[in-house]
Amino acid sequence: MKWIYFQVVFSLYMAIPLNQGVHITATGFQIKVINLSRQLLLCRELIGLRNEKCKNILEKEIRKLKVSLFEVGAKRNALTAAQNLNTDRTNIHLSGKYVSDVYPIWLKVGYRFIDIYCDMESGSYITNKTGWITFQQRKNGKINFNRGWEDYVNGFGNPNEDYWAGLENILMLTNQNLIVLNHGYSTLRPNLRVDLKGWDGFNAHVEYERFTLYSNRNYKIGRFGKRYGTGFQPNFPDAFFRQEFSTFDKKSEGTSFQTNCPGPHNSGWWFSECGFSNLNGVYQGPNQKMSKRDGIYWRHWFLINTNKTALKHASMKTQYPFRGN
């Protein structure tokens, strides 16, 4: 304050013209100097406040930038982690695991994990690769498959024993891989494998190209591609009909089920009026013959196994032809 005062006084003194009759009283001169000094101090304070405000704004923007950089890094890390998740048997193989067991599988569409049994030993005629994701399994009859619609949609059982992954999860498993085309995106459908083993030790399997479900048609099963394996007769109609899924409390509209045929009276399946399969039927014992109406049923079994024994094991599995992006 004193420094500004003396500086102003000196400047004004030097600026006063001499011998020109200028008369400025000491008191008036001091008041003007004091007022000017106060104005100068106020200007300095305003400049300081402006600088502080600018500094605060700058620091705020820097903090925002740091947060943005952190979020970008977090998203990049999350994306990298998601790319390394087990989305099919290929990722499991790449992680160095080759033993059949229950593994967490990441559903890309559902954005969540499911624990599911992976058959890492069975090969494929179509892809010449091992490893299948098992979404349906019958092993010991401990789980009751006579259930309603909600159970079949959500899933039930134990992945190590009798198990149904759930229609919604199965649907997501058929939509794991998207491939980029010139005109957009297309879903690469997985192959389907059905494994069958009788109480007499006889076993067979079937592989199908392009396993598809339609959510807007009550999980209707789509048309397959070619089929391979030992579990069918080439000149006989296929075991799967293109039907909507049915249970006792939600039946496919317009379908009447024949009395002596597989139907929703004891399980859920892609039933027709008199279909050729029902792997969710009643689990039968070692001394029984395969029951068309009530048991775990596969029409071709009567054609390939002369003993016609009931099935001890049955399972359904998916595998993608190759690893998608």
From TrEMBL:
Pfam families: Fibrinogen_C
SMART domains: FBG
Entry keywords, A to Z: Disulfide bond, Signal
Stored InterPro entries: Fibrinogen-like_C, Fibrinogen_a/b/g_C_1, Fibrinogen_a/b/g_C_dom, Fibrinogen_C-term_domain, Fibrinogen_CS
Domain Fibrinogen C-terminal residue range list: 80-322
Cleaved signal peptide residues: 1-21
Identification of the protein by name: Self-incompatibility-linked fibrinogen-like protein-B
Protein source organism: Ciona intestinalis
Gene: v-Themis-B
